[in-house]
Amino acid sequence: MLLLAAATAAYTFVVKTIVDTAAALDTEANPAHNNARHYAIAILPLLLGITLASGLSNYFQRILTNVIALNAVGEMQKQMFASSQTSDYASFAREPIGERISKFTHDVTVVSNTLIRVLSNLVKDVLTVVFTIAAMLWQNWMLSLVMTVFILAFVPIVRISRRMRGSARDVQEHIGVITSELKESFSGVRMVKTYGLETRESERLDRSFDLRISKFLKLVSQQACVDPILEVLGGLAIVGVVIFGVYQVSAGLATPGSIVGVLTGLLILSPRLRALGTLNNAAQEGLSSLTRIFDVIDEKSAIIDAPDAKPLIDPRGIVELENVSFTYMDGTQALSDVSISATDGENIALVGLSGSGKSTIINLIPRLYDVDSGTIKIDGRDIRDVTLASLRKSISLVSQDVTVFNNSVAANIGFGDLSASRDDIVAAAKAADAHDFIQTLPEGYDTIVGEDGDTLSGGQKQRIAIARAILRDAPILLLDEATSALDAESESNVQAALERLSNGRTTITIAHRLSTVQNADRIYVMDKGRVVETGTHKALSKKRGGLYARLRDLQLS
Ligand code: ADP
After folding, report:
1. Low-confidence ranges of the chain (pLDDT < 70)
2. What is the pLDDT of residue 500?
3. For the domain that residue 246 is a member of, what is the CATH number?
4. C-alpha span between 495 and 462 (Å, rounded)
5. Ligand 1: which residue has its CA nearest to atom 24?
6. Would the CB of 328 count as within 6 Å of ligand 1?
7. 359 lines ligand 1 (CB under 6 A)
Protein backbone atom coordinates (compact mmCIF):
# COMPACT_ATOMS: atom_id res chain seq x y z
CA MET A 1 0.00 0.00 0.00
CA LEU A 2 2.89 2.29 0.84
CA LEU A 3 4.51 1.60 -2.50
CA LEU A 4 1.27 2.05 -4.38
CA ALA A 5 0.58 5.39 -2.66
CA ALA A 6 4.09 6.68 -3.39
CA ALA A 7 3.90 5.57 -7.03
CA THR A 8 0.57 7.30 -7.48
CA ALA A 9 1.77 10.56 -5.94
CA ALA A 10 4.87 10.39 -8.14
CA TYR A 11 2.69 10.86 -11.24
CA THR A 12 2.39 14.57 -10.37
CA PHE A 13 6.17 14.91 -10.77
CA VAL A 14 6.13 12.99 -14.00
CA VAL A 15 3.47 15.26 -15.45
CA LYS A 16 5.18 18.41 -14.19
CA THR A 17 8.48 17.33 -15.76
CA ILE A 18 6.87 16.42 -19.05
CA VAL A 19 5.10 19.78 -19.32
CA ASP A 20 8.07 21.85 -18.29
CA THR A 21 10.34 19.91 -20.66
CA ALA A 22 7.92 20.34 -23.50
CA ALA A 23 7.64 24.04 -22.74
CA ALA A 24 11.44 24.34 -22.74
CA LEU A 25 11.78 22.46 -26.03
CA ASP A 26 9.29 24.83 -27.53
CA THR A 27 11.43 27.91 -27.08
CA GLU A 28 14.76 27.55 -28.88
CA ALA A 29 16.15 30.61 -27.12
CA ASN A 30 15.64 29.06 -23.71
CA PRO A 31 18.98 28.15 -22.04
CA ALA A 32 17.28 25.14 -20.51
CA HIS A 33 16.89 23.69 -23.99
CA ASN A 34 19.77 21.18 -23.74
CA ASN A 35 18.81 20.03 -20.28
CA ALA A 36 15.34 19.52 -21.58
CA ARG A 37 16.50 16.91 -24.09
CA HIS A 38 18.14 14.92 -21.32
CA TYR A 39 15.04 15.17 -19.22
CA ALA A 40 12.90 13.95 -22.06
CA ILE A 41 15.08 10.85 -22.49
CA ALA A 42 15.31 10.14 -18.75
CA ILE A 43 11.62 10.45 -18.17
CA LEU A 44 10.69 7.39 -20.21
CA PRO A 45 12.29 4.70 -18.00
CA LEU A 46 11.12 6.63 -14.94
CA LEU A 47 7.57 6.60 -16.19
CA LEU A 48 7.81 2.89 -16.96
CA GLY A 49 9.25 2.17 -13.53
CA ILE A 50 6.48 4.05 -11.76
CA THR A 51 3.76 2.29 -13.75
CA LEU A 52 5.30 -1.09 -13.07
CA ALA A 53 5.67 -0.40 -9.35
CA SER A 54 2.11 0.88 -9.20
CA GLY A 55 0.70 -2.13 -11.06
CA LEU A 56 2.55 -4.76 -9.05
CA SER A 57 1.84 -3.16 -5.69
CA ASN A 58 -1.82 -2.79 -6.67
CA TYR A 59 -2.00 -6.54 -7.41
CA PHE A 60 -0.43 -7.63 -4.15
CA GLN A 61 -2.28 -5.20 -1.90
CA ARG A 62 -5.58 -6.36 -3.35
CA ILE A 63 -4.83 -10.02 -2.74
CA LEU A 64 -3.49 -9.42 0.76
CA THR A 65 -6.47 -7.27 1.72
CA ASN A 66 -8.83 -10.03 0.60
CA VAL A 67 -6.86 -12.66 2.47
CA ILE A 68 -7.24 -10.64 5.67
CA ALA A 69 -10.96 -9.98 5.15
CA LEU A 70 -11.81 -13.54 4.15
CA ASN A 71 -9.96 -15.02 7.10
CA ALA A 72 -11.55 -12.61 9.56
CA VAL A 73 -15.00 -13.33 8.22
CA GLY A 74 -14.36 -17.08 8.07
CA GLU A 75 -13.40 -16.97 11.73
CA MET A 76 -16.62 -15.08 12.49
CA GLN A 77 -18.71 -17.74 10.76
CA LYS A 78 -17.01 -20.44 12.79
CA GLN A 79 -17.60 -18.58 16.03
CA MET A 80 -21.22 -17.85 15.12
CA PHE A 81 -21.84 -21.48 14.38
CA ALA A 82 -20.07 -22.70 17.51
CA SER A 83 -22.11 -20.26 19.56
CA SER A 84 -25.33 -21.33 17.84
CA GLN A 85 -24.55 -24.92 18.72
CA THR A 86 -24.29 -24.14 22.41
CA SER A 87 -27.06 -21.57 22.60
CA ASP A 88 -30.32 -22.40 24.30
CA TYR A 89 -33.03 -24.33 22.52
CA ALA A 90 -35.35 -21.44 23.32
CA SER A 91 -33.27 -19.02 21.24
CA PHE A 92 -34.11 -21.02 18.11
CA ALA A 93 -37.80 -20.77 18.87
CA ARG A 94 -37.45 -16.99 19.29
CA GLU A 95 -35.85 -16.24 15.94
CA PRO A 96 -36.97 -17.65 12.59
CA ILE A 97 -34.27 -19.98 11.23
CA GLY A 98 -34.03 -18.04 7.95
CA GLU A 99 -33.04 -14.88 9.78
CA ARG A 100 -30.26 -16.69 11.54
CA ILE A 101 -29.11 -18.16 8.23
CA SER A 102 -29.01 -14.74 6.60
CA LYS A 103 -26.59 -13.59 9.29
CA PHE A 104 -24.26 -16.37 8.18
CA THR A 105 -24.58 -15.50 4.51
CA HIS A 106 -25.65 -11.90 3.84
CA ASP A 107 -24.29 -10.09 6.88
CA VAL A 108 -20.98 -11.87 6.63
CA THR A 109 -20.61 -10.74 3.01
CA VAL A 110 -21.38 -7.15 3.97
CA VAL A 111 -18.76 -7.24 6.72
CA SER A 112 -16.21 -8.77 4.39
CA ASN A 113 -16.78 -6.04 1.78
CA THR A 114 -16.59 -3.35 4.44
CA LEU A 115 -13.40 -4.77 5.83
CA ILE A 116 -11.81 -4.73 2.39
CA ARG A 117 -12.91 -1.15 1.85
CA VAL A 118 -11.85 0.06 5.24
CA LEU A 119 -8.45 -1.59 4.94
CA SER A 120 -7.75 -0.20 1.51
CA ASN A 121 -9.31 3.23 2.06
CA LEU A 122 -7.95 3.88 5.49
CA VAL A 123 -4.43 2.79 4.72
CA LYS A 124 -3.91 3.07 0.98
CA ASP A 125 -6.05 6.12 0.27
CA VAL A 126 -4.94 8.04 3.33
CA LEU A 127 -1.32 7.40 2.37
CA THR A 128 -1.99 8.40 -1.24
CA VAL A 129 -3.71 11.60 -0.09
CA VAL A 130 -0.84 12.48 2.25
CA PHE A 131 1.85 11.81 -0.36
CA THR A 132 -0.03 13.59 -3.13
CA ILE A 133 -0.68 16.68 -1.00
CA ALA A 134 2.99 16.73 -0.03
CA ALA A 135 3.97 16.50 -3.71
CA MET A 136 1.56 19.30 -4.61
CA LEU A 137 2.80 21.59 -1.83
CA TRP A 138 6.38 20.91 -2.90
CA GLN A 139 5.60 21.91 -6.46
CA ASN A 140 3.46 24.97 -5.82
CA TRP A 141 2.29 25.55 -2.27
CA MET A 142 0.20 28.64 -2.91
CA LEU A 143 -1.82 26.96 -5.57
CA SER A 144 -2.25 23.83 -3.49
CA LEU A 145 -3.98 25.79 -0.76
CA VAL A 146 -6.87 26.37 -3.16
CA MET A 147 -7.96 22.82 -2.60
CA THR A 148 -8.84 23.42 1.04
CA VAL A 149 -12.30 24.07 -0.42
CA PHE A 150 -12.58 20.33 -0.48
CA ILE A 151 -12.64 20.08 3.27
CA LEU A 152 -15.98 21.90 3.36
CA ALA A 153 -17.52 18.90 1.63
CA PHE A 154 -17.28 16.77 4.71
CA VAL A 155 -19.79 18.67 6.82
CA PRO A 156 -22.96 17.57 4.95
CA ILE A 157 -21.54 14.14 4.24
CA VAL A 158 -21.10 13.27 7.88
CA ARG A 159 -24.68 14.29 8.50
CA ILE A 160 -26.03 12.10 5.69
CA SER A 161 -24.03 9.10 6.91
CA ARG A 162 -25.71 9.15 10.24
CA ARG A 163 -29.11 8.72 8.64
CA MET A 164 -27.76 5.99 6.40
CA ARG A 165 -26.89 3.72 9.28
CA GLY A 166 -30.55 3.31 10.19
CA SER A 167 -31.53 2.61 6.59
CA ALA A 168 -28.76 0.05 6.21
CA ARG A 169 -29.94 -1.83 9.27
CA ASP A 170 -33.46 -1.78 7.91
CA VAL A 171 -32.32 -3.33 4.64
CA GLN A 172 -30.34 -6.06 6.37
CA GLU A 173 -33.16 -6.99 8.67
CA HIS A 174 -35.49 -7.24 5.74
CA ILE A 175 -33.10 -9.56 3.91
CA GLY A 176 -33.29 -11.81 6.97
CA VAL A 177 -37.08 -11.76 6.69
CA ILE A 178 -36.96 -12.68 2.99
CA THR A 179 -34.58 -15.57 3.67
CA SER A 180 -36.93 -16.80 6.31
CA GLU A 181 -39.99 -16.55 4.07
CA LEU A 182 -38.21 -18.33 1.23
CA LYS A 183 -37.14 -21.13 3.51
CA GLU A 184 -40.65 -21.51 4.85
CA SER A 185 -42.20 -21.50 1.41
CA PHE A 186 -39.75 -23.96 -0.15
CA SER A 187 -39.85 -26.38 2.75
CA GLY A 188 -43.64 -26.35 2.61
CA VAL A 189 -43.67 -26.98 -1.11
CA ARG A 190 -45.77 -30.12 -0.81
CA MET A 191 -48.55 -28.30 0.93
CA VAL A 192 -48.26 -25.29 -1.34
CA LYS A 193 -48.74 -27.48 -4.41
CA THR A 194 -51.49 -29.73 -3.14
CA TYR A 195 -53.49 -26.82 -1.73
CA GLY A 196 -52.92 -24.72 -4.85
CA LEU A 197 -51.30 -21.94 -2.83
CA GLU A 198 -48.76 -21.00 -5.50
CA THR A 199 -50.39 -17.66 -6.33
CA ARG A 200 -50.82 -16.76 -2.70
CA GLU A 201 -47.17 -17.60 -2.00
CA SER A 202 -46.04 -15.60 -5.03
CA GLU A 203 -48.05 -12.61 -3.88
CA ARG A 204 -46.66 -12.90 -0.36
CA LEU A 205 -43.05 -13.08 -1.54
CA ASP A 206 -43.65 -10.38 -4.18
CA ARG A 207 -44.66 -8.00 -1.41
CA SER A 208 -41.41 -8.78 0.38
CA PHE A 209 -39.34 -8.35 -2.76
CA ASP A 210 -41.05 -5.02 -3.45
CA LEU A 211 -40.43 -3.90 0.09
CA ARG A 212 -36.77 -4.72 -0.38
CA ILE A 213 -36.69 -2.45 -3.44
CA SER A 214 -38.18 0.48 -1.57
CA LYS A 215 -35.92 -0.01 1.42
CA PHE A 216 -32.88 -0.23 -0.83
CA LEU A 217 -33.95 2.84 -2.78
CA LYS A 218 -34.16 4.83 0.42
CA LEU A 219 -30.60 3.82 1.26
CA VAL A 220 -29.39 4.49 -2.28
CA SER A 221 -30.99 7.94 -2.39
CA GLN A 222 -29.05 8.86 0.71
CA GLN A 223 -25.85 7.37 -0.72
CA ALA A 224 -26.44 9.17 -4.01
CA CYS A 225 -26.18 12.63 -2.40
CA VAL A 226 -22.58 12.10 -1.48
CA ASP A 227 -20.96 11.93 -4.91
CA PRO A 228 -22.56 15.05 -6.44
CA ILE A 229 -21.56 17.15 -3.44
CA LEU A 230 -17.96 16.06 -3.82
CA GLU A 231 -18.14 16.41 -7.61
CA VAL A 232 -19.25 20.04 -7.49
CA LEU A 233 -16.70 20.98 -4.89
CA GLY A 234 -14.00 19.21 -6.93
CA GLY A 235 -15.03 21.22 -9.99
CA LEU A 236 -14.80 24.44 -7.97
CA ALA A 237 -11.31 23.51 -6.82
CA ILE A 238 -10.20 22.92 -10.42
CA VAL A 239 -11.65 26.25 -11.55
CA GLY A 240 -9.78 27.92 -8.69
CA VAL A 241 -6.50 26.27 -9.66
CA VAL A 242 -6.87 27.27 -13.31
CA ILE A 243 -7.66 30.93 -12.57
CA PHE A 244 -4.99 31.34 -9.95
CA GLY A 245 -2.47 29.30 -11.98
CA VAL A 246 -2.83 31.48 -15.10
CA TYR A 247 -2.18 34.52 -12.93
CA GLN A 248 0.93 32.87 -11.38
CA VAL A 249 2.43 31.90 -14.75
CA SER A 250 1.81 35.29 -16.30
CA ALA A 251 3.39 36.95 -13.27
CA GLY A 252 6.40 34.60 -13.61
CA LEU A 253 5.73 33.06 -10.14
CA ALA A 254 5.43 29.46 -11.35
CA THR A 255 6.24 27.16 -14.26
CA PRO A 256 3.37 25.79 -16.36
CA GLY A 257 4.52 22.29 -15.29
CA SER A 258 3.79 22.99 -11.64
CA ILE A 259 0.28 24.15 -12.49
CA VAL A 260 -0.39 20.94 -14.42
CA GLY A 261 1.29 18.99 -11.60
CA VAL A 262 -1.13 20.46 -9.04
CA LEU A 263 -4.08 19.77 -11.36
CA THR A 264 -2.92 16.16 -11.72
CA GLY A 265 -2.72 16.00 -7.93
CA LEU A 266 -6.30 17.23 -7.72
CA LEU A 267 -7.43 14.54 -10.13
CA ILE A 268 -5.60 11.91 -8.07
CA LEU A 269 -7.06 13.26 -4.84
CA SER A 270 -10.63 13.55 -6.04
CA PRO A 271 -11.60 9.83 -6.17
CA ARG A 272 -9.62 9.08 -2.99
CA LEU A 273 -11.28 11.84 -1.03
CA ARG A 274 -14.61 10.77 -2.41
CA ALA A 275 -13.92 7.22 -1.24
CA LEU A 276 -12.91 8.51 2.17
CA GLY A 277 -16.06 10.64 2.27
CA THR A 278 -18.27 7.61 1.68
CA LEU A 279 -16.14 5.34 3.82
CA ASN A 280 -18.21 6.22 6.82
CA ASN A 281 -21.34 4.98 5.01
CA ALA A 282 -19.76 1.70 4.13
CA ALA A 283 -18.44 1.41 7.65
CA GLN A 284 -21.92 2.11 9.05
CA GLU A 285 -23.44 -0.61 6.89
CA GLY A 286 -20.70 -3.00 7.95
CA LEU A 287 -21.10 -2.07 11.59
CA SER A 288 -24.78 -2.78 11.55
CA SER A 289 -24.10 -6.22 10.08
CA LEU A 290 -21.32 -6.72 12.57
CA THR A 291 -23.74 -5.98 15.40
CA ARG A 292 -26.07 -8.68 14.10
CA ILE A 293 -23.16 -11.12 13.85
CA PHE A 294 -22.01 -10.40 17.38
CA ASP A 295 -25.56 -10.82 18.62
CA VAL A 296 -25.11 -14.45 17.64
CA ILE A 297 -21.53 -14.83 18.84
CA ASP A 298 -22.16 -13.18 22.20
CA GLU A 299 -25.44 -14.89 22.87
CA LYS A 300 -25.38 -16.09 26.46
CA SER A 301 -26.85 -19.47 27.24
CA ALA A 302 -29.03 -19.62 30.31
CA ILE A 303 -28.83 -23.39 30.42
CA ILE A 304 -25.25 -24.24 31.27
CA ASP A 305 -23.37 -26.40 33.74
CA ALA A 306 -23.46 -25.20 37.33
CA PRO A 307 -19.97 -24.27 38.55
CA ASP A 308 -19.81 -27.35 40.77
CA ALA A 309 -21.67 -29.69 38.40
CA LYS A 310 -20.57 -33.33 38.57
CA PRO A 311 -21.10 -35.88 35.84
CA LEU A 312 -23.85 -38.45 36.11
CA ILE A 313 -21.98 -41.75 35.96
CA ASP A 314 -23.83 -44.89 34.87
CA PRO A 315 -27.22 -43.72 36.08
CA ARG A 316 -29.91 -46.31 36.71
CA GLY A 317 -32.46 -43.98 35.21
CA ILE A 318 -34.83 -43.15 38.06
CA VAL A 319 -36.75 -40.06 36.95
CA GLU A 320 -38.70 -37.83 39.32
CA LEU A 321 -40.50 -34.56 38.69
CA GLU A 322 -41.43 -32.87 41.96
CA ASN A 323 -43.97 -30.03 41.91
CA VAL A 324 -42.69 -28.77 38.57
CA SER A 325 -44.10 -25.56 37.09
CA PHE A 326 -43.04 -24.04 33.80
CA THR A 327 -44.03 -21.00 31.75
CA TYR A 328 -42.82 -20.32 28.20
CA MET A 329 -41.19 -16.99 27.31
CA ASP A 330 -44.42 -15.70 25.81
CA GLY A 331 -46.21 -16.19 29.10
CA THR A 332 -48.00 -19.47 28.32
CA GLN A 333 -48.14 -21.45 31.55
CA ALA A 334 -47.53 -24.98 30.28
CA LEU A 335 -47.11 -26.91 33.56
CA SER A 336 -48.39 -26.26 37.08
CA ASP A 337 -47.25 -28.27 40.04
CA VAL A 338 -46.62 -31.49 38.14
CA SER A 339 -45.23 -34.51 39.99
CA ILE A 340 -44.30 -37.65 38.09
CA SER A 341 -41.96 -40.49 38.88
CA ALA A 342 -40.57 -43.57 37.20
CA THR A 343 -38.17 -46.01 38.79
CA ASP A 344 -35.56 -47.68 36.65
CA GLY A 345 -36.96 -49.89 33.94
CA GLU A 346 -40.49 -48.62 34.46
CA ASN A 347 -42.66 -47.72 31.54
CA ILE A 348 -44.90 -44.73 32.11
CA ALA A 349 -47.22 -42.93 29.74
CA LEU A 350 -48.42 -39.34 29.45
CA VAL A 351 -51.92 -38.97 28.12
CA GLY A 352 -54.07 -35.92 27.54
CA LEU A 353 -55.57 -33.59 24.99
CA SER A 354 -53.18 -31.66 22.81
CA GLY A 355 -51.78 -28.60 24.55
CA SER A 356 -52.04 -30.25 27.96
CA GLY A 357 -48.26 -30.10 28.53
CA LYS A 358 -46.98 -33.55 27.56
CA SER A 359 -44.23 -32.37 25.19
CA THR A 360 -43.19 -29.75 27.69
CA ILE A 361 -42.40 -32.49 30.19
CA ILE A 362 -40.30 -34.27 27.55
CA ASN A 363 -38.47 -30.97 26.86
CA LEU A 364 -37.69 -30.34 30.51
CA ILE A 365 -36.03 -33.68 31.27
CA PRO A 366 -32.97 -33.14 28.98
CA ARG A 367 -32.97 -29.47 30.10
CA LEU A 368 -33.94 -27.96 26.77
CA TYR A 369 -35.65 -25.55 29.17
CA ASP A 370 -35.18 -25.15 32.91
CA VAL A 371 -38.10 -25.45 35.31
CA ASP A 372 -39.46 -22.28 36.96
CA SER A 373 -40.08 -24.02 40.24
CA GLY A 374 -39.92 -27.55 41.59
CA THR A 375 -37.16 -30.02 40.72
CA ILE A 376 -36.43 -32.75 38.25
CA LYS A 377 -34.18 -35.51 39.56
CA ILE A 378 -32.39 -38.41 37.98
CA ASP A 379 -31.24 -41.08 40.41
CA GLY A 380 -32.14 -38.62 43.16
CA ARG A 381 -29.86 -35.83 41.85
CA ASP A 382 -31.23 -32.49 40.68
CA ILE A 383 -30.51 -32.36 36.94
CA ARG A 384 -29.20 -28.81 37.38
CA ASP A 385 -26.40 -30.19 39.57
CA VAL A 386 -25.05 -32.62 37.00
CA THR A 387 -23.18 -31.79 33.80
CA LEU A 388 -25.36 -31.21 30.76
CA ALA A 389 -23.28 -33.57 28.64
CA SER A 390 -23.69 -36.47 31.07
CA LEU A 391 -27.38 -35.72 31.58
CA ARG A 392 -28.11 -35.78 27.86
CA LYS A 393 -25.92 -38.84 27.37
CA SER A 394 -28.26 -40.72 29.67
CA ILE A 395 -31.31 -39.89 27.55
CA SER A 396 -32.51 -41.04 24.14
CA LEU A 397 -35.30 -39.26 22.37
CA VAL A 398 -37.44 -40.79 19.66
CA SER A 399 -39.94 -38.29 18.45
CA GLN A 400 -42.82 -38.07 16.06
CA ASP A 401 -40.91 -35.94 13.57
CA VAL A 402 -37.75 -37.92 12.98
CA THR A 403 -34.70 -35.87 12.12
CA VAL A 404 -32.64 -37.45 9.38
CA PHE A 405 -29.65 -35.66 7.93
CA ASN A 406 -28.69 -35.70 4.26
CA ASN A 407 -26.15 -38.44 4.79
CA SER A 408 -25.89 -42.21 4.52
CA VAL A 409 -28.27 -44.51 6.39
CA ALA A 410 -25.33 -45.83 8.42
CA ALA A 411 -24.28 -42.32 9.41
CA ASN A 412 -27.84 -41.45 10.39
CA ILE A 413 -27.99 -44.41 12.74
CA GLY A 414 -24.42 -43.70 13.88
CA PHE A 415 -25.43 -40.30 15.33
CA GLY A 416 -26.60 -42.30 18.32
CA ASP A 417 -23.01 -43.07 19.18
CA LEU A 418 -20.29 -41.44 17.11
CA SER A 419 -17.75 -44.09 18.09
CA ALA A 420 -19.89 -47.03 16.93
CA SER A 421 -18.45 -49.46 14.38
CA ARG A 422 -20.30 -50.67 11.29
CA ASP A 423 -21.07 -53.94 13.08
CA ASP A 424 -22.66 -52.06 16.00
CA ILE A 425 -24.74 -50.07 13.53
CA VAL A 426 -25.94 -53.19 11.73
CA ALA A 427 -26.78 -54.86 15.04
CA ALA A 428 -28.80 -51.81 16.10
CA ALA A 429 -30.61 -51.78 12.76
CA LYS A 430 -31.47 -55.45 13.16
CA ALA A 431 -32.87 -54.85 16.63
CA ALA A 432 -34.94 -51.99 15.22
CA ASP A 433 -36.36 -54.16 12.42
CA ALA A 434 -34.67 -51.85 9.95
CA HIS A 435 -31.98 -54.16 8.56
CA ASP A 436 -34.20 -55.81 5.94
CA PHE A 437 -35.48 -52.65 4.34
CA ILE A 438 -32.02 -51.03 4.47
CA GLN A 439 -30.64 -53.95 2.45
CA THR A 440 -33.17 -53.35 -0.29
CA LEU A 441 -32.02 -49.73 -0.70
CA PRO A 442 -29.82 -49.15 -3.78
CA GLU A 443 -26.59 -48.95 -1.81
CA GLY A 444 -27.66 -50.56 1.44
CA TYR A 445 -26.25 -48.83 4.48
CA ASP A 446 -24.36 -46.38 2.27
CA THR A 447 -27.47 -45.02 0.57
CA ILE A 448 -27.74 -41.27 0.96
CA VAL A 449 -31.21 -40.52 2.28
CA GLY A 450 -31.69 -37.02 0.84
CA GLU A 451 -32.64 -33.87 2.67
CA ASP A 452 -35.22 -34.55 5.40
CA GLY A 453 -35.04 -38.24 4.42
CA ASP A 454 -37.49 -37.64 1.59
CA THR A 455 -36.55 -40.96 -0.01
CA LEU A 456 -37.72 -42.94 3.04
CA SER A 457 -41.24 -43.72 4.21
CA GLY A 458 -42.52 -42.56 7.57
CA GLY A 459 -42.18 -46.02 9.09
CA GLN A 460 -38.66 -46.45 7.74
CA LYS A 461 -37.58 -43.14 9.20
CA GLN A 462 -39.07 -44.18 12.53
CA ARG A 463 -37.10 -47.40 12.54
CA ILE A 464 -33.88 -45.53 11.73
CA ALA A 465 -34.60 -43.30 14.71
CA ILE A 466 -35.20 -46.37 16.88
CA ALA A 467 -31.93 -47.96 15.68
CA ARG A 468 -30.18 -44.70 16.58
CA ALA A 469 -31.66 -44.84 20.08
CA ILE A 470 -30.72 -48.51 20.47
CA LEU A 471 -27.16 -47.63 19.53
CA ARG A 472 -27.17 -44.79 22.04
CA ASP A 473 -28.05 -47.28 24.74
CA ALA A 474 -29.14 -44.68 27.28
CA PRO A 475 -31.00 -45.74 30.46
CA ILE A 476 -33.79 -43.20 29.93
CA LEU A 477 -35.96 -43.24 26.85
CA LEU A 478 -38.29 -40.39 25.90
CA LEU A 479 -40.82 -41.40 23.29
CA ASP A 480 -43.12 -39.13 21.40
CA GLU A 481 -45.24 -41.89 20.02
CA ALA A 482 -45.52 -41.69 16.28
CA THR A 483 -47.38 -44.82 15.40
CA SER A 484 -50.53 -42.84 14.73
CA ALA A 485 -49.01 -41.60 11.49
CA LEU A 486 -48.16 -45.08 10.22
CA ASP A 487 -50.07 -47.77 8.34
CA ALA A 488 -50.97 -50.99 10.14
CA GLU A 489 -48.01 -52.99 8.90
CA SER A 490 -45.40 -50.33 9.60
CA GLU A 491 -47.08 -49.73 12.92
CA SER A 492 -46.70 -53.30 14.09
CA ASN A 493 -43.05 -53.32 12.92
CA VAL A 494 -42.33 -50.08 14.68
CA GLN A 495 -44.24 -51.14 17.76
CA ALA A 496 -42.23 -54.34 18.05
CA ALA A 497 -38.98 -52.40 17.63
CA LEU A 498 -40.07 -49.88 20.23
CA GLU A 499 -40.83 -52.61 22.71
CA ARG A 500 -37.38 -54.07 22.21
CA LEU A 501 -35.89 -50.59 22.65
CA SER A 502 -37.76 -49.77 25.83
CA ASN A 503 -36.98 -53.11 27.39
CA GLY A 504 -34.88 -52.54 30.50
CA ARG A 505 -34.97 -48.74 30.18
CA THR A 506 -36.99 -46.16 32.02
CA THR A 507 -39.45 -45.12 29.34
CA ILE A 508 -41.64 -42.03 29.31
CA THR A 509 -44.05 -42.13 26.40
CA ILE A 510 -46.34 -39.45 25.07
CA ALA A 511 -49.20 -41.66 24.00
CA HIS A 512 -51.53 -40.38 21.33
CA ARG A 513 -53.47 -43.61 21.12
CA LEU A 514 -54.73 -45.28 24.24
CA SER A 515 -54.39 -48.74 22.69
CA THR A 516 -50.63 -48.47 23.04
CA VAL A 517 -50.54 -47.62 26.74
CA GLN A 518 -52.36 -50.64 28.07
CA ASN A 519 -49.14 -52.22 29.26
CA ALA A 520 -47.73 -49.07 30.87
CA ASP A 521 -46.82 -49.42 34.52
CA ARG A 522 -48.52 -46.13 35.20
CA ILE A 523 -50.42 -43.58 33.18
CA TYR A 524 -50.46 -39.87 34.00
CA VAL A 525 -53.48 -38.09 32.59
CA MET A 526 -52.75 -34.42 31.91
CA ASP A 527 -55.15 -31.54 31.55
CA LYS A 528 -54.22 -27.87 31.17
CA GLY A 529 -50.72 -28.38 32.53
CA ARG A 530 -51.76 -30.47 35.54
CA VAL A 531 -51.76 -34.17 36.31
CA VAL A 532 -55.42 -34.94 36.96
CA GLU A 533 -55.38 -38.73 37.19
CA THR A 534 -52.77 -41.42 37.79
CA GLY A 535 -53.06 -45.19 37.56
CA THR A 536 -52.93 -48.24 35.34
CA HIS A 537 -55.07 -48.59 32.26
CA LYS A 538 -57.35 -50.98 34.09
CA ALA A 539 -57.87 -48.78 37.12
CA LEU A 540 -58.34 -45.59 35.13
CA SER A 541 -60.79 -47.18 32.69
CA LYS A 542 -63.00 -48.16 35.56
CA LYS A 543 -63.14 -44.67 36.97
CA ARG A 544 -66.55 -43.50 35.71
CA GLY A 545 -66.61 -39.85 34.72
CA GLY A 546 -62.80 -39.63 34.82
CA LEU A 547 -60.91 -37.88 32.02
CA TYR A 548 -59.15 -41.08 30.98
CA ALA A 549 -62.39 -42.99 30.71
CA ARG A 550 -63.86 -40.18 28.63
CA LEU A 551 -60.82 -40.07 26.32
CA ARG A 552 -61.04 -43.82 25.93
CA ASP A 553 -64.72 -43.68 25.08
CA LEU A 554 -64.01 -40.95 22.53
CA GLN A 555 -61.33 -43.04 20.83
CA LEU A 556 -63.40 -46.20 20.87
CA SER A 557 -66.39 -44.49 19.32
P1 ADP B 1 -48.93 -31.29 24.36
O2 ADP B 1 -47.61 -31.92 24.12
O3 ADP B 1 -49.71 -31.95 25.43
O4 ADP B 1 -49.72 -31.10 23.13
P5 ADP B 1 -47.37 -28.91 24.91
O6 ADP B 1 -46.46 -29.29 26.03
O7 ADP B 1 -46.82 -28.89 23.54
O8 ADP B 1 -48.68 -29.83 24.96
O9 ADP B 1 -47.97 -27.47 25.19
C10 ADP B 1 -48.40 -27.02 26.44
C11 ADP B 1 -48.76 -25.55 26.31
O12 ADP B 1 -47.58 -24.80 26.07
C13 ADP B 1 -49.71 -25.25 25.17
O14 ADP B 1 -50.58 -24.24 25.61
C15 ADP B 1 -48.81 -24.75 24.08
O16 ADP B 1 -49.49 -23.84 23.27
C17 ADP B 1 -47.71 -24.08 24.87
N18 ADP B 1 -46.40 -24.13 24.17
C19 ADP B 1 -45.77 -25.23 23.71
N20 ADP B 1 -44.56 -24.90 23.17
C21 ADP B 1 -44.43 -23.56 23.28
C22 ADP B 1 -43.42 -22.60 22.92
N23 ADP B 1 -42.26 -22.96 22.34
N24 ADP B 1 -43.67 -21.31 23.22
C25 ADP B 1 -44.81 -20.93 23.82
N26 ADP B 1 -45.79 -21.76 24.18
C27 ADP B 1 -45.63 -23.06 23.92
Report:
1. 26-34, 36, 40, 146-154, 452-453, 482-490, 557
2. 83
3. 1.20.1560.10
4. 10
5. 328
6. yes
7. yes
